[in-house]
Amino acid sequence: MEKNLRNILVNQIVSTLQKNRNSLKKMFKEKNVKYFYVDDLIDVNLAKKISDAFPADKKNLMTRKTLRENKTVGIKMSNYDQILSDITYAFHDQKVIDVISSITKMPDMFADNDLYAAGLSMMSKGNFLNPHLDNSHNMERSKYRALNLLFYCTENWDISNGGNLELWHSGPKSNQETIFAKFNRLVVMKTDLHSWHSVSEVTSDDSRNCISNYYFTNYSPDLSDYEHVTTFRGRPEQFFRDILLRLDSFARSSIRYFYKKQHTKHIKK
């Protein structure tokens, strides 16, 4: 069973996506931030095993706590239960990529084995992610981020617990759409210049757990050339934090621009 578990997960993911292909295609077209979600992605008993496998001890996880975000993440899959590695890398299988490509009409996508800004995500009481645009590229800045895949893994999670995905279709100063972090739900979101999103603050003593992956492309997701760092903003009620986060994004963008110029000069030598 363990030897073939990843293949079982791949086949279940592909089957669920194919079964819902037409409705998912329609959903992906409807809003400014392009996304779709599908429930009951895999067998519920396997989903429960994944939920139970998330580590109770966070010593092998990294905590990121700033004005921008407060969350705990993990990318070294060998530190965790094998089933967490299996479900993470099941989304890297070409059969899964192909069916998602057919739904989103985004060809030639590929997964990132390095799990750059992906992997396990565990958010407990007080954790949050402010409105932001994801970093536009991979670590080497050679590929564009194209899609973000979020598989929610916490059994018996309630929408009132927070930790839900928020989509800001008209930017971070408008009303947002909340996508419930429902157990055994997969959300696929396009990452482009319009995909402002956030995660609401967790209010529960329990942890909202998620498997995150990115797909990359050699072309821009919105067919225009751009490059930016992960760009954070304040929520509508966070006036002063918004100013600080704008300044923070400008500073980090300036550093990247300077580094890029220096790097280019070095290559030419």
List the helices and strands and how they pair.
Layout: H1 5-19, H2 21-29, E1 35-38, H3 44-53, E2 62-65, E3 69-74, H4 82-90, H5 94-104, E4 110-111, E5 119-123, E6 128-133, E7 144-152, E8 165-167, E9 177-179, E10 185-190, E11 197-199, E12 208-217, E13 231-232, H6 239-268
Antiparallel strand pairs: 1-10, 2-3, 3-5, 3-6, 4-12, 5-12, 6-11, 6-13, 7-10, 7-12, 8-9, 8-11
Fold and architecture overview:
It is a single chain. By secondary structure, the chain is α+β, with helices and mostly antiparallel strands. It has a single domain (5-268), classed as Jelly Rolls (Sandwich). Helix content is 31%, strand content 23%. The protein contains six helices and 13 strands. It has helices at residues 5-19, 21-29, 44-53, 82-90, 94-104, 239-268, and strands at residues 35-38, 62-65, 69-74, 110-111, 119-123, 128-133, 144-152, 165-167, 177-179, 185-190, 197-199, 208-217, 231-232. Strands 1, 2, 3, 4, 5, 6, 7, 8, 9, 10, 11, 12 and 13 form a 13-stranded antiparallel β-sheet that branches. A hairpin with a 3-residue loop joins strand 2 (62-65) and strand 3. Helix 1 (5-19) runs parallel beside helix 4 and helix 1 (5-19) packs parallel to helix 5. The longest helix is centred in the last third of the chain and has 30 residues, at 239-268. The radius of gyration is 18 Å and the shape is globular. The chain starts with a helix and ends with a helix.
